[in-house]
Please model this.
Amino acid sequence: MSNEDQNLTINIEWVPALFKELSKLIVGQKDMLEAILMGVLTEGHVLIEGLPGLAKTLSISTFSKTLSLAFQRIQFTPDLLPSDIIGTMIFNPNTGEFNVKKGPVFSNIILADEINRASAKVQSALLEAMAEKQVSIGSNTYKLDKPFLVLATQNPIEQEGTFELPEAQLDRFLFKVKVNYPNKEEELQILEKINDFATAEVKSILTQDKLLEARQQVSKIHIDENLKKYIIDLIMSTRNLKEYGLKRLEHLVKIGVSPRATLGIATAAKAQAFLKGRNYVNLDDIKTVAYLVLRHRLILTYEAESENINTDNIITEILANINI
Model:
């Protein structure tokens, strides 16, 4: 670790205040809220999957109020058009020229609500924005505002009226978060606070300057060389299971993860360390974010599906067998 890394001071005094504001409207869902915050700190897109009624949309809209960033919500439906997202050319009869009308994607935080209800054409339009931080309207290309972050909600694929997202688009999401039902105590809190939700006001906690400072701190967090090699082993094991003593999983994994997963784990582990107030990454940071980064990138076989095995099961096996 360099002297600069050793002297790096992590300032997370604003984090408890942020979660206190969120708790005015959100009960529980700590893992989802932390994942969103890590996405904001790394400018990584986040996909949130869960059944209706689990506060996915409310969490994202409430989060936006705690940040001094522009926010737009796009409700994805089967009849949504690419122009409804990126914008279009409008003819001006007074001048006889076409003018650009920019769409809601020109914002800092985009809530893509029920993203898997839209067609492939719409997904392609959003993919360019996510991948290149730009959109094409007519013959011109326009850069998006900075920072730019897509927070998408998704109903499970088996729900009626949904489409599977293309693998190329899934790979552009830093995280995939799975949201579960609240427990008994949390359900009771929701019931008791029902009247408070209507009057609760959420304040802005993080200014753009503070956000930029936090992002710079995250980027400077140290990862030891041994931990870098461990990350590489995790990634490589998904592509060559036999070489890493995981031959028993070969019939379950069709395609391993891309190099974006390597960068994603390293970036996310830094954000995780930051939230713990450390200026260095440890092994637990990597293991914590591995599920978030890998679960939507691993492509399983039909045999895995028939055996009711999901990507989290595979990741658990890999983490148990790969040593530092």
The chain has two domains: 12-211, 222-321.
